[in-house]
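[09:14] KT: can someone run the structure on this one? pasting the chain below
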Amino acid sequence: MRRVVVVTDCTDVAFNEMCGAIHREADRIGQPVVVEPVVPVVPFSEINASFLTMLMADNYPEGTVLYTLVSKTNNLERTHEVIWGETLSGHLFVGSNFGYFGWLARDLGVKRVYEIKDVPQTPFSGKTFIAPIVARIAATDEEELTRHPYDVHDIHDVDIPAGSVVHVDNFGNAKLKVDVGALRNRDVVTLSVNGKPVCEATYIESQIYLEREQGKVVLYRSTSFEDMTDVGMVRGDFAGHHSVRVGDQVSWSVSR
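[09:31] RB: done, structure tokens below
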């Protein structure tokens, strides 16, 4: 039995309802299932969902089922396609083809992908229809789910420009989809958010909690991916202090 990781903006009792549907189907087919704690997504954020789905694939072992269910905000249609597949790394993914799997597909490659047909357009089909399918995929009960192969090139992606904030953690640290570039330890830069200068920041190569100056803004190579950058405030809340949100654009220029 594969473990299941749910990446979703349904973080109240709705998450438990989905877990219940997964467990109920697993019990019905006689296969126990392990559902990990919820991975909460910023509501209605395709960017955050895409990042967190990829991050979970990077941290969980092959064979993990990633079920991404997030409310969509653009390109709305009366019907939509639901897909499931497997990356070249051996991770399984399930969910609406709303762009959440684009980053995953680009970085890990796709071994196989299928469409799940006849998804009812009901208020919570993510629980009543898709969640039981997640349990079957976790149980490797796939025969009926491979009848409709899907073109890997039809997997939607989310446009995430360089410098985009893709996540803000509970400490207010912002994760940016951009490399630190040629910055050297202790370089001082001017940070801008959506083109407006907001503060100075220091690039550090050590851990942020070792910094002594409380409230100092620092940037450093991301703890999530080597080709990303994190911005934080020493024992403070950078994102909260400067009203930074997922989807904002952060850039910098070297001050000294």
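[09:33] KT: thanks! The mean pLDDT is 94.
[09:34] RB: yep, looked fine to me
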